[in-house]
C-alpha cells in the first residue's frame, strides 16, 4: 500500500542525517576532553555539562521515540485519559528541582556516581544500595525496549511507503546496524556522545513538532475540523484500534476516571527522576546552579509534549492519514501517517530520522546509567576494582545491555514490552523513600528501609497480579478501590512509606541512631 509522500528522497534525507548523527557521536569523545578510562568522565561527562547541555540531555529523555509514538496513539485509541502525560511531566520537573540539586551536591562532595552510592552511605546499608540498583536495572530494560518499539514503527512506515509492504527482516537489519553504531560511539564517547547527539536529535524533534502543529491545522481546517470528524469517525476508530472498548472521549474525561488520571500523573511524576538515566543526566551538570537552571527550563519540553499529544486528535483532520492507520490496524502509526500524508518528501525524512534517533539517544543514556549501577553497586560490592577496570567493565556492560534490550524486542511481542514497562515504573517508585527522603532526613533506618522496599515490591506485584487476572496478560497498571481506579505505584508506595517511616520511628525510640557517614552540609553546600 502507498503511505503518503514517502519516496527515495525521503530515504536519502534519512540516511544523510543519520550519518551526521553518527559522526557527532564519535567526535564527542574530543568534546571537553577528559580521561575516559575513569567512570565519572565516561559515565557522567566529567560532570562538566553546562545548563544548555543538561537541558538538551534531559529533554532527550523526555522526547523519545516511544513518547512520539505512544502518547498520540493512546490519545487516538483510548482518549483523554492519556493526556495525564502533560501534568505528569510538569510535576516531574518540580520533583527534580526539589531533589536533584541536593543529590548533585552530595555526589560532587563525596564522589558518588549513582544514587545507590548515596543510599549506601546515607543508610550504612550495602544491601539496600544493591536493592535500589537492581530495581533501577530491572525497570530500565523494558524502557529501552520501548524506544526500539517506537523506532520499529518509523522503519515500518518507511518501508510501507517505499515498497508497499513491511519487511521484518529489513527492519531488523536496520535496527541492528543502528545499534552497532550507537554501541560503538557510546563505548568511545560515553555520556558526551549522548549529550551532543541529544542536541542534534532535539533540534530535529522541535522542528518536526512545531512544523506539524502549525502547518497541518492551517492546511486542513484546524482542530475544529479534527473534533468535527472525530464525532463521526471515533466509533470506527474504537472498533478497529480499541477492540470496541469505548466510547472514546477526547474533549472531556469520565468522572470515574479522574482518580486514575490524577494518580497516574502523580505516580509517574514521582517515578521520573528515580530512573537511572534521569539521575545520571542530572549528576553530569557542571555545578548546582546550572543544574537548577537547566531543570527549570524543562517545562518547555512539557509544552512540546502537550502539542505532541494533540497529534492523536489532529489526525482526524486528515482523512487519508486516518484511513492508513485503520488499514494497518495499529495506533502506533498515527504520527508517521500524519507526517507522511501532510508534509513534503524531504521533510518526512527529517521527521522520521528525528523520531528514530529519538530512540537511540535515550537508549544510550539508559544503558550508561544501568552500567554505572551494575558495576559500582553490584559487582564492586563483591570484587575490588581499580578505576580503569571499573570504567572498562562499565563500557562493556553498557554495550551488552543495549543488545539485550534489542534481543528482548525481537523475542518478546511489543505488547508485552509495553506491559512490562508499566510494571517497571511501578517497581522503580519503591526506591523513593531511600533516594528522595534520604536527601532530606537521616533518621530513616537502613534495615527498616530495606524492609519497606521489599514490602513495597511485593505489594506492587500482588496488586498487579490481582488487577490483571493472575498475570494472564498485564493489561493495566490501575487497581480498583473505593475511591476509584488508582495507579498501583501509589498504593504500593504508601505501604512502603508506612513500613519505612513507622518502623524507623520505632527503631529510633528503641535506641538506634543514624549513621554519620554523610554530614548535612555535604548535601546542602558545594564544598
UniProtKB/TrEMBL annotation:
Native species: Metallosphaera hakonensis JCM 8857 = DSM 7519
Cited PANTHER family: MONOCARBOXYLIC ACID PERMEASE, SODIUM/PROLINE SYMPORTER-RELATED
Subcellular location as annotated: Membrane
This protein's record includes keyword Oxidoreductase: no
Membrane topology: Multi-pass membrane protein
Alphabetized UniProt keyword annotations: Membrane, Transmembrane, Transmembrane helix, Transport
Annotated TM spans: 6-28, 49-69, 81-104, 125-143, 173-191, 203-227, 258-278, 298-318, 349-375, 396-416, 422-441, 448-465, 485-510
Family affiliation: Belongs to the sodium:solute symporter (SSF) (TC 2.A.21) family.
GO molecular function (one): transmembrane transporter activity
Name the record gives this protein: Sodium:solute symporter
GO cellular component: plasma membrane
Primary location group: membrane
Pfam families listed in its UniProt record: SSF
Cited InterPro entries: Na/Glc_symporter_sf, Na/solute_symporter, Sodium:Solute_Symporter
Amino acid at each position: 500500500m502507498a503511505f503518503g509522500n514517502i519516496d527515495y528522497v525521503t530515504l536519502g534525507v534519512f540516511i544523510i542525517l543519520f550519518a551526521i548523527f553518527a559522526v557527532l557521536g564519535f567526535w564527542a569523545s574530543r568534546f571537553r576532553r577528559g580521561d575516559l578510562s575513569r567512570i565519572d568522565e565516561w559515565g557522567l561527562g566529567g560532570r562538566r555539562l553546562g545548563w544548555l547541555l543538561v537541558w538538551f540531555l534531559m529533554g532527550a529523555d523526555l522526547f523519545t521515540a516511544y513518547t512520539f509514538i505512544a502518547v498520540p496513539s493512546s490519545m487516538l485509541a483510548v482518549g483523554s485519559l492519556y493526556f495525564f502525560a502533560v501534568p505528569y511531566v510538569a510535576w516531574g520537573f518540580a520533583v527534580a528541582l526539589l531533589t536533584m540539586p541536593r543529590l548533585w551536591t552530595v555526589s560532587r562532595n563525596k564522589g558518588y556516581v549513582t544514587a545507590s552510592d548515596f543510599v549506601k552511605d546515607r543508610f550504612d546499608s550495602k544491601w539496600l544500595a544493591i536493592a535500589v540498583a537492581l530495581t533501577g536495572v530491572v525497570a530500565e530494560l523494558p524502557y529501552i525496549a520501548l524506544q526500539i518499539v517506537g523506532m520499529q514503527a518509523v522503519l515500518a512506515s518507511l518501508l510501507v511507503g517505499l515498497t508497499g509492504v513491511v519487511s521484518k527482516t529489513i527492519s531488523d537489519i536496520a535496527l541492528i546496524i543502528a545499534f552497532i553504531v550507537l554501541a560503538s560511539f557510546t563505548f568511545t564517547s560515553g555520556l558526551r556522545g549522548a549529550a551532543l547527539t541529544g542536541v542534534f536529535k532535539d533540534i530535529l524533534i522541535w522542528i518536526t513538532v512545531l512544523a506539524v502543529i502549525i502547518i497541518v491545522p492551517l492546511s486542513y481546517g484546524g482542530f475544529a475540523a479534527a473534533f468535527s470528524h472525530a464525532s463521526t469517525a471515533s466509533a470506527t476508530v474504537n472498533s478497529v484500534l480499541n477492540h470496541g472498548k469505548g466510547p472514546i472521549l477526547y474533549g472531556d474525561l469520565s468522572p470515574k476516571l479522574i482518580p486514575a488520571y490524577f494518580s497516574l500523573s502523580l505516580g509517574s511524576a514521582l517515578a521520573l527522576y528515580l530512573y537511572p538515566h534521569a539521575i545520571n543526566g542530572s549528576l553530569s551538570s557542571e555545578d548546582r546552579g546550572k543544574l537548577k537552571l537547566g531543570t527549570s527550563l524543562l517545562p518547555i519540553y512539557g509544552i512540546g509534549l502537550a502539542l505532541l499529544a494533540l497529534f492523536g486528535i489532529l489526525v482526524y483532520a486528515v482523512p487519508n492519514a486516518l484511513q492508513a492507520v485503520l488499514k494497518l490496524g495499529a495506533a502506533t502509526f498515527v504520527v508517521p501517517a500524519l507526517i507522511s500524508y501532510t508534509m513534503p518528501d524531504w521533510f518526512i525524512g527529517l521527521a522520521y530520522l528525528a523520531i528514530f534517533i529519538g530512540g537511540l539517544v535515550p537508549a544510550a543514556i539508559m544503558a550508561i546509567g544501568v552500567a554505572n549501577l551494575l558495576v559500582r553497586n553490584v559487582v564492586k560490592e563483591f570484587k575490588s576494582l581499580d578505576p580503569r577496570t571499573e570504567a572498562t567493565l562499565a563500557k562493556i556492560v553498557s554495550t551488552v545491555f543495549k543488545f539485550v534490550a534489542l534481543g528482548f524486542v525481537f523475542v518478546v511481542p511489543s505488547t508485552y514490552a509495553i506491559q512490562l514497562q508499566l510494571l517497571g515504573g511501578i517497581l522503580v517508585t519503591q526506591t523513593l523513600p531511600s533516594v528522595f527522603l534520604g536527601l532530606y532526613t537521616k533518621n530513616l533506618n537502613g534495615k527498616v528501609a530495606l524492609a519497606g522496599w521489599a514490602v513495597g515490591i511485593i505489594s506492587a506485584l500482588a496488586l498487579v497480579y490481582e488487577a490483571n487476572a493472575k498475570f494472564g496478560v498485564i493489561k493495566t497498571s490501575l487497581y480498583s478501590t473505593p475511591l476509584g481506579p488508582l495507579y498501583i505505584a501509589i498504593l504500593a508506595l504508601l505501604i512502603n512509606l508506612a513500613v519505612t517511616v513507622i518502623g524507623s520511628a520505632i527503631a529510633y525510640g528503641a535506641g538506634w541512631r543514624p549513621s554519620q557517614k554523610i554530614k548535612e552540609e555535604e548535601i546542602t553546600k558545594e564544598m
